[in-house]
Structures
1.
Amino acid sequence: MSKVCIVFASMTGNTEEIKEILVNTISKYTEVDVYEMDMVGVDVIEDYDYVLIGSYTYDDGDIPFEAEDFYEELEGLDLSGKYASCFGSGDTLYVDFCNAAVLFEERVIEQGGVIIEPALKIELSPSYDDQKEKCVQFAQRVIEYMGGGQSKTAN
Ligand SMILES: Cc1cc2nc3c(=O)[nH]c(=O)nc-3n(C[C@H](O)[C@H](O)[C@H](O)COP(=O)(O)O)c2cc1C
């Protein structure tokens, strides 16, 4: 069974809500470990085959404070053999909508990781405008990539 973790940064809870939907969906297939980005170092990733990185976006399309160290440290990590996908909440009032997720995605590629799904970008809370389904579908595509589709109990 694939080992999956989610590492996320959320200030007002929107990215955390996305994380919850991803956990609820993926954990029907396999176990998911969750880490808050400012509480762990990047070496936590080394134990997992699949990594989902979530971050909201701050000033002018930037990586937020809570995610800065993790983002910088990633530059020293060899991600070859790792499968990853990024997600985050943002606000379309800003020019660089959800750019932190894109910056993480680019860094994963630079470090040799494979992006299995393009970044999931959610406008504020996933509970607005029925964006929950977008999160569920993203999680389902991740599960399919892992060779899944059946629930954990069915295996
Ligand atoms: C000062 C400030 C700057 C922001 N800059 C951006 C931005 O450049 N791009 C974007 O998509 N969202 C931007 N946002 C919006 C946040 O990413 C958005 O509120 C998000 O839902 C916060 O996620 P969280 O609840 O997980 O902390 C900004 C918010 C604040 C307060």
2.
Amino acid sequence: MKNLLMVGAGSMSEALVRGWIDSGIAPTDITMTNRSDRERLYALKDELGVQIVEEENVNDYEIVVLAMQPDGVIPYVEANTWETPLLISVAAHIEPHQLEAASGLPAVCAMPNTPVAYRSGMTGLWFGPETDETDRAKATALFERVGRTAVTDAKSMSAFMAAAGCSPAFFYEIVGAMTPVLTEAGFDQDTARQIVAQAMKGSAELLSHESRETDELIADVAAPGGPTDRGVGVLRKRDLADVMASALRESAKEDHESIEKA
Ligand SMILES: NC(=O)c1ccc[n+]([C@@H]2O[C@H](COP(=O)([O-])OP(=O)(O)OC[C@H]3O[C@@H](n4cnc5c(N)ncnc54)[C@H](OP(=O)(O)O)[C@@H]3O)[C@@H](O)[C@H]2O)c1
């Protein structure tokens, strides 16, 4: 039995494969396939050292990850006969019970983000009702190789997608707003971006190791009346908290609407 088949060779598939190889999975244990763009498939084989196939038998693999666009997922599942693999879809707006109904196998819907390429991903895992502990552990272990995971479900998936998938754009917006202050002070654009990005990365690292409330963490760096305190005061006066919560709610709402349209 071969290890892992990636059906779809687009940006998410590549990001996951890069992360998995970096985590120690042998490139030869990963097989990739797509339907049209063979040039890309061969380029990925040359660059990453993975196996590629132009026609696949899904039952040759322990795990099959569906990484095509969402509208192709159910037709693909229905077009195959499923006997053995653990079926994982990373497509948005697909629900595990749909995969299980179409395949007759336990299935997992995973929602990764592209930082998986650097093993800093955040992946939501929505386990199908037919999955058992072994399936869940296998899917969890696979995605924890490339970051962290959280269990999601029908109710929480939209908020998860907004927080893990959309919020990087919010953070880029914040970095974009802060860098001019540094370039005005004399740093070049790249250094300015690295300074803010590194401060953000360090704060994220600290947050992921801390369980104290964010107000307490702020108090650690903001002496009353000092420069941090004055800056935080500006954020509070302009109600950044409301802006950020509203942005996240809006992204979660849009996602919900697109599920309804699908
Ligand atoms: N990009 C993200 O940040 C992100 C985040 C979370 C989830 N996702 C999900 O990941 C999936 C892929 O997204 P993407 O951004 O990687 O899209 P993409 O770049 O368009 O890649 C889609 C890939 O699927 C292939 N494909 C399409 N139909 C196929 C089929 N029937 N059999 C085999 N391969 C097929 C395409 O190649 P050919 O056309 O050559 O076949 C292409 O390689 C989507 O469902 C998306 O919802 C993406």
3.
Amino acid sequence: MRQILLLILLFFVGQWFFKTLRRAQTQSSQSRPGVDPRQPGQGARRANGGAAGAETGTAVLAEPMVRCAECGVHAPRSESVSVGEQTFCSAAHARAYDARKTSQNRPAR
Ligand SMILES: [Zn+2]
């Protein structure tokens, strides 16, 4: 009987531990989500805070950093937005860069 109680206790502790671990993983993946090796950098457009939590976080340490073409800030590649050959820290900067480039091409506007 005592063993059963111990087993139940262990079960609850295990569940609590799993939940805590899961929460810690979600938090760390919010600051820098795991890189997706299947994703080719070219033309891959990804907004900030995507559904990256579901992916495995084994490759988190090997995440390459890319430089934002608009403000020069270095951001994890999975968090960055790439348009063509340029990468940006956010979709807003991608738009800003695009708008600036367009206005440079057409100064009359
Ligand atoms: Zn930027």
